[in-house]
From TrEMBL:
It comes from Leeia aquatica. Pfam families: SBP_bac_3. Gene3D superfamilies: Periplasmic binding protein-like II. Residues 16-218 form the Solute-binding protein family 3/N-terminal domain. It comes from the Bacteria. This is Amino acid ABC transporter substrate-binding protein.
């Protein structure tokens, strides 16, 4: 599990032991209740999750799906859409990809934002530990003029820090999905179909939406829709 608030947050319980909270721990709690399985949870850097999937050291992860992962992982249940792009400081704008080149953009270390952006050596990526650090850098005007990554997640951090007035337009790279990524070398491959079926049931009966609404509030039903390639404010999601 990647420690990105509000997906996964490391806290300490009354006994001084680490306790993981957030949207993904809640999702896994419900999965364990329905399946009878016990999921081994641990905070892992993004790059390590990819390596563990490729090497078969873990059965699966729940994360944003990327096409490069198809080489070593099967795409399982899709939970809902995820918008990836750039959240700009107020007054900064971009109409097309090439407009981003002169703009320093804070990007969480190891995060796969967009296939083109990730490998583009001309992009000015200010690599930082997480979204919270990136948002603070933009507010403090410490180089970066935008935050690259999951727009819905960045939205939550902006409101948590009460810095909405410092941010303006958004630029959309791609829309992907939060999905089960099942290692093709997983030791428990016979369980793949059952695991995906349980997660699919959680999507179909509204459990996934209930959990994400709890942690993302007004920002997720599913994720706020961004416009592309323009940077106009996202429209309010249609009611369900």
């Amino acid at each position: 599990m990647i420690q990105l608030e509000p997906w996964t947050i490391s806290t300490t319980n009354a006994q001084g032991q680490e306790k993981l909270i957030g949207a993904l721990p809640d999702l896994l709690d419900e999965f364990e209740r329905r399946s009878g399985y016990k999921v081994n949870r641990r905070i892992t850097p993004y790059a390590r999750v990819e390596a563990d999937l490729e090497g078969g050291l873990i059965d699966f992860s729940v994360m944003a799906w990327g096409p490069a992962r198809a080489r070593y992982a099967n795409r399982g249940t899709d939970f809902g859409p995820l918008d990836f792009g750039v959240y700009f400081a107020k007054g900064t704008t971009a109409q097309k990809y090439e407009d981003l080149y002169p703009l320093p953009l804070c990007t969480p270390l190891g995060l796969k934002v967009d296939p083109r952006y990730d490998i583009d050596p001309a992009m000015q990526k200010d690599l930082s530990v997480d979204y919270t650090t990136c948002v603070k850098k933009v507010v403090a005007k410490h180089g970066s003029v935008g935050v690259a990554g999951s727009l819905g997640t960045i939205d939550v951090i902006i409101d948590k820090l009460n810095v909405r007035k410092f941010f303006g337009e958004r630029f959309l790279f791609r829309v992907t999905t939060l999905s089960v990524s099942w290692s093709q070398r997983a030791p428990n491959n016979p369980e793949e179909a059952r695991v995906n079926a349980i997660f699919k049931g959680m999507v179909e009966d509204g459990t996934y939406e209930r959990i994400t609404r709890k942690w993302f509030g007004k920002h997720l039903s599913y994720f706020p829709r961004a416009t592309s390639p323009s940077t106009k404010p996202a429209r309010k999601p249609a009611s369900r």
